[in-house]
Amino acid sequence: MGKEQRRDPDYAFILTVLLLLGLSLIMVFSASYIISAESSRGDPYFFLRRQAVWIGLGLVGMLALSRFPYHRLRRMSPFLLLVSFILLVLVYIPGIGVEIYDARRWIGLGPITVQPAEFCKLAFMIFTAAYMSSRSIRLEKFWSSSFVPLALMGVAFFLILKQPDYGTSLLLAAATVTVIFLAGLPFKQAAGIFLVSLPAMIILAIKEPYRLQRLTSFLDPWADPGDSGHQIIQSLFALGPGHIFGVGLGRSRQKLYYLPLPHSDFIFAIIGEELGFVGAVMVLLLFFILFWRGIRIAMLAPDSFGSLLAAGITSLLAIQVMMNIAVVTGSIPVTGVTLPLISAGGSSLFFTLCGFGILLNISRHLQEVGG
Fold first, then answer.
1. What is the pTM of this model?
2. Which of 62, 71, 273, 293 could form a disulfide with 238 if both were Cys (CB 3.0 to 4.6 A apart)?
3. Is 238 within 8 Å of 273 (Cβ atoms)?
4. What is the tens place of the pLDDT at every residue in 277-302?
């Protein structure tokens, strides 16, 4: 253990975030301007302006939380978790919850909508880190340690699943279990959690017809190319012509009504088509830098709460990136999870940047170690 010292925030992390946000503005505009211009809005800059507004709000949140002492979040964690549960329930109340594409995932706040599940992910990382770093728990006692965050996570999981949003539910579960495991969960408990949860995940995946359809289309998208296999096929059609250097910025063909949600869930496919293999690898490299810096912050944090919290926020980012790119490349079934920092969005972008603000605050208190 080294000596804690007050230091500047992680500038490499900040620069990488800004590069990804700059790329987001470019690619969101490139992927959306035609469909936006030809929509009822008739405004090719609609998604670009909206993305710029959310980036601005997110950067304000990141700056504020980078200066807010992360230690105070430990005491606030039960309240934050309670608020997240209340918001998850509010999406089902008529007049408050907003239904879009047969899903109730949003709360209307005047001209904007907010997705409570995004806040819940961050609140859960704070609560789980606070709970698992408490000196009063004994990790070898399942019912008084990991059971509590797992049980609460189960409640949030099914509230989000009911929206329906299976992808975000899985992301929340995976990140929560990661934090619990890193806290020192005994191997027997980890194996037991895995053996119990795996059949449950399989049952949930095949219980609803649309989820089963996604699973079968992933295994053989060409069996139904006009419907269930359409997204995966069109995504691969976008990645293929990109070759090494891409077809050129703004020259994608798949964004012309072939690939659904080219500016959102499948924006990585447009990056691969327009910027090619080189562009796609550069994006992955930038994300890798964020993962590396996040892991470094977690390892050098001055206390177990800061370490677990940094690990949880980094896990959220890493798992979501892997899920999105795996979908785009046809490696897993479609989940509806966006690409952090790059996909067009509101709540996801804002709370991701807020989480990064917490990471930056932790980075100002790292232990002094050799090198």
1. 0.92
2. 273
3. yes
4. 999 999 999 999 999 999 999 999 99
Q: How many CA atoms lie within 13 A of 97 on its CB side?
A: 18
**Residues contacting residue 14 through CB under 8 Å, at least 6 positions apart:** 360
Query: Residue 91, class by beta-carbon neighbours within 10 Å (0-12 exposed, 13-18 middle, 19+ buried)?
Result: buried
Q: Which token pair is 189? A: 């408990």
In terms of phi and psi (left: phi > 0; alpha: psi -120 to 50; beta: otherwise), the region of 95 is left
Going from N- to C-terminal start, the domains of the chain cover: 3-368
Q: What is the pLDDT of residue 370?
A: 39
Q: Of the candidates 119, 205, 98, which has an alpha carbon nearest to the alpha carbon of residue 161?
A: 205
Q: Are 232 and 261 in contact (CB under 8 A)?
A: no
End-to-end CA distance of the chain: 14
Q: Is the pLDDT of residue 29 over 80?
A: yes
Residues 255, 31: contact at Cβ < 8 Å? Answer: yes
Separation of alpha carbons 46 and 52, rounded Å = 10
